[in-house]
């Protein structure tokens, strides 16, 4: 049976994976306030109930009966890519946590009798690799590097659901501005202490997005039937690392006089430094803007003042 488009009450259920993460924990109450019933995934069979679906992606197990008649699925689960140096084992966990779980979920959705209308599946702007100063839209081909390769496989893992008739949105997200996690939480302590500064030469672009806008874009993709395929979930005005540093220091009323040398970062973090800290991606959100989404925080300073209550 094709994906359902009706809006009966029981079809307002959303399966949200990664519900306990930084984005998922903020998204859950927002969607609940909008009238959606939120379900989550659990690896503990004893905790599986009407609001939690058992799954074990390593064993390829999931309870398909709990996924019938969903309105949609928002898939955010995955290993943290910035928690420590990328050892061989860490890189494998990063890849497997995204590709294996996404593939299991997509194949299961494709086989349902009554499929969800939409699967919004997380990806990242790292798909594009290091782009220098080039502005990139969703039409840009995949780039080079470990994270670009992970994103390619991650997005490809959603294809069974798409072939099965589910509208699939591949959400290419940039660094999310929130003091509760991600890049901003890591850099706030030195900046608040007046010891912040640019990274490397500072010319690398950051395709940031405020948390409020990421939640808004996710809901917009969930409900807008015209959106499908890759969607850049980034603010319309990416900035260089040097500009990000200057604006953050201004918002915090602190100096930013201590640049972090590229060599030191490479020695400390290895491959991760090259791909996450020293390379740049200047992505813009062409598809959501053309579809009518209006950003609450298109400019960096206003976004930082909002999320930091400054």
Characterization of the model:
The chain is of the alpha/beta class. It has a domain at 9-175 and 209-234 and 285-291: NAD(P)-binding Rossmann-like Domain (Rossmann fold, 3-Layer(aba) Sandwich), CATH 3.40.50. It contains eleven helices and 14 strands. It has helices spanning 22-33, 88-110, 146-156, 159-163, 182-192, 211-223, 241-252, 262-269, 271-277, 286-291, 300-307; strands at residues 13-17, 37-42, 52-56, 61-62, 72-75, 118-124, 135-136, 167-173, 176-177, 205-206, 209-210, 229-233, 239-240, 282-283. The strands form four sheets. An eight-stranded mixed beta sheet has the order 4-3-2-1-5-6-8-12, with helices on both faces. The chain is globular. The termini are far apart. Mean pLDDT is 92; it is low at 1-11.
What's the story with the biggest beta sheet? Answer: 8 strands, mixed
CATH superfamily of the domain at 9-175 and 209-234 and 285-291, called what?
NAD(P)-binding Rossmann-like Domain
Strand segment count: 14
Coarse morphology: globular
Low-confidence stretches: 1-11
Structural class: alpha/beta
Topology of this protein?
Layout: E1 13-17, H1 22-33, E2 37-42, E3 52-56, E4 61-62, E5 72-75, H2 88-110, E6 118-124, E7 135-136, H3 146-156, H4 159-163, E8 167-173, E9 176-177, H5 182-192, E10 205-206, E11 209-210, H6 211-223, E12 229-233, E13 239-240, H7 241-252, H8 262-269, H9 271-277, E14 282-283, H10 286-291, H11 300-307
Parallel strand pairs: 1-2, 1-5, 2-3, 5-6, 6-8, 7-14, 8-12, 9-11
Antiparallel strand pairs: 3-4, 10-13
Helix pairs in contact: 1-6, 2-3, 7-11, 8-9
């Amino acid at each position: 049976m094709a994906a359902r488009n009706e809006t009966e009450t029981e079809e307002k259920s959303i399966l949200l994976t990664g519900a306990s993460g930084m984005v998922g924990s903020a998204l859950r109450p927002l969607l609940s306030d909008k009238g959606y019933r939120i379900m989550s995934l659990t690896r503990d069979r004893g905790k599986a109930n009407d609001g939690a679906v058992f799954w074990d992606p390593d064993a390829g197990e999931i309870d398909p009966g709990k996924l019938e008649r969903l309105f949609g699925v928002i898939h955010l689960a995955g290993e943290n890519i910035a928690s420590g140096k990328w050892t061989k084992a860490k890189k494998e966990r990063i890849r497997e946590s995204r590709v294996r779980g996404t593939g299991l979920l997509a194949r299961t959705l494709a086989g349902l009798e009554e499929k969800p209308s939409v699967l919004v599946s997380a990806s990242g702007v790292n798909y594009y690799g290091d782009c220098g100063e080039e502005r990139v839209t969703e039409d840009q081909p995949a780039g080079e590097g470990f994270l670009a390769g992970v994103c390619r496989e991650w997005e490809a893992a959603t294809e069974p659901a798409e072939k099965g008739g589910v509208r699939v949105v591949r959400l290419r997200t940039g660094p999310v501005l929130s003091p509760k996690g991600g890049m901003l939480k890591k850099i706030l302590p030195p900046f608040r202490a007046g010891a912040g500064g640019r990274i490397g030469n500072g010319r690398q672009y950051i395709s940031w997005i405020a948390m409020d806008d990421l939640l808004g874009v996710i809901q917009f993709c969930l409900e807008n039937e015209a959106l499908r395929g890759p969607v850049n979930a980034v603010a319309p005005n990416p900035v260089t690392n040097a500009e990000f540093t200057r604006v953050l220091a201004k918002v915090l009323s602190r100096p930013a006089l201590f640049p972090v040398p590229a060599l030191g970062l490479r020695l400390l973090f290895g491959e991760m430094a090259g791909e996450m800290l020293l390379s740049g991606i200047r992505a813009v959100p062409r598809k959501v803007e053309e579809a009518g989404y209006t950003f609450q925080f298109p400019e960096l300073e206003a976004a930082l003042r909002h999320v930091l209550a400054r």
